[in-house]
Design goal:
Elements lengths: L1 E5 L11 E7 L4 E6 L3 E5 L9 E3 L15 H10 L2 H13 L6 H8 L5 H13 L4 H6 L5 H10 L8 H9 L5 H14 L5 H9 L5 H14 L5 H5 L5 H16 L5 H16 L6 H14 L2 H13 L3 H15 L10 H24 L1
Antiparallel strand pairs: 1-4, 2-3, 2-5
Helix pairs in contact: 1-2, 1-3, 2-4, 3-4, 4-6, 6-8, 7-8, 8-10, 9-10, 10-12, 12-13, 12-14, 13-14, 14-16, 14-17, 15-16
């Protein structure tokens, strides 16, 4: 059997001397040295192997880009080392054409390590092979149910939403319930509205589920959702998710006096966060006011910028003032991807502010 090995060398540097282990199905393995940019290695094999695993134990701190047929990756998933099995999962998720049987078998194998079953769920979601994921929602392993619930959000079959809602009625883990709401909203936000409204107001719902419900209402809810979204609960993450959802709903309304009235309502709620004792709450208020703030909001943001001792917070407040002052129109509607990007940006800024606080 012949194996071609290459290593990328850039900037006029030299190739590393790498001890590369090569293993095959049946446990046969050999170690060769890759001392140049490229080498062709002949490995003794009594018969053609079902798969070839490069560095099967992950001993080398390098990123391998291995090429082999989809059938070989499927064989590696069922017969390789734990590390090489994870590499096989990644490959099977990315290849253009794959028989999903090996992934489905790993997902349902109760003897397989949990990390492999969860990886199989993620790979099946990436490949939009979703019926096995719906079945996995009944598995006793909570981590697998969580992986399946999250992976279902990549599917495009609206018919799956009913099965996900049925699972909401029996699922006891709040984090998994939240993942189901998020995934159903990603497939079709309109069909999640009833479940999201119920989760947002249900007293026994924990923070993850309520935050996910607020986000779902932001994607497809009407102006009638805004009062409930702006009722500030004690939990910070739910409060911020509700505020951002209200901002999104306002952004979908037609231009006119009613939209301006709603914008002012949301802005007044966001302004209250500027005096919050929680740094993330303040940052969330700034983030929302950048979208819906008016002249009153700009004055309060400028006051915050003058009073704060945190440069990052001051810069954020003044940047929001600039955005408000230069706004020609009102809030521009955000697509789901844009809304996620805004939340990610806000989360990154919050972490930067917390790090700055720790240094002081």
């Amino acid at each position: 059997m012949t194996v071609e090995l290459k290593q990328a060398v850039s900037g006029g540097g030299h190739a590393y001397a790498l001890p590369v282990e090569i293993s095959m199905d049946g446990g046969a393995s050999t170690r060769v040295w890759l001392r140049d940019e490229a080498a062709t290695v002949t490995v003794p094999a009594p018969q053609a192997p079902r798969f070839v695993a490069i560095d099967p134990m992950g001993a080398l701190l390098v990123d391998w880009d291995q090429q082999q047929p989809a059938a070989a990756w499927s064989a590696q998933l069922t017969g390789g080392s734990p590390y090489s099995q994870r590499l096989a999962l990644r490959a099977l998720a990315e290849l253009p054409v794959v028989d999903p049987d090996a992934l489905v078998a790993t997902l349902g194998d109760v003897r397989a390590p949990g990390v492999l079953r969860e990886g199989a769920a993620e790979a099946l979601g990436t490949r939009r092979t979703c019926d096995p994921l719906l079945a996995a929602l009944g598995d006793p392993d909570e981590r697998l149910r969580m992986a399946a619930a999250s992976a279902l959000g990549r599917c495009a079959d609206r018919g799956l939403a009913q099965g996900m809602f049925a699972r909401l009625g029996v699922e006891t883990n709040s984090d998994i319930r939240a993942a189901l709401v998020r995934s159903a909203a990603a497939i079709d936000p309109t069909v999640t509205l009833a479940a999201a409204r119920k989760a947002l107001t249900r007293r026994d719902a924990l923070e993850p589920e309520r935050a996910a419900a607020a986000a779902a209402l932001g994607l497809a809810g009407s102006v009638g959702e805004i009062p409930a979204l702006l009722r500030v609960p004690e939990d910070r993450d739910v409060r911020l998710a509700g505020l951002q959802a209200a901002v999104s709903i306002v952004g979908r309304q037609a231009l006119g006096p009613e939209r301006e009235r709603l914008r002012a309502t949301v802005a007044r709620s966001a302004e209250r966060l500027l005096t919050d004792l929680d740094l993330r709450g303040i940052q969330g208020g700034i983030h929302a006011l950048r979208e819906v703030g008016d002249a009153q909001s700009a004055a309060l943001l400028e006051r915050l910028a003058r009073a704060t001792t945190l440069p990052a917070l001051r810069d954020a407040a003044r940047s929001a003032v600039t955005t408000i002052s230069g706004r020609v129109d009102t809030v521009s509607p955000a697509t789901p991807n844009e809304a996620d990007a805004r939340l990610d940006a806000m989360e990154t800024r919050m972490k930067e502010l917390e790090a700055e606080m720790e240094r002081r």
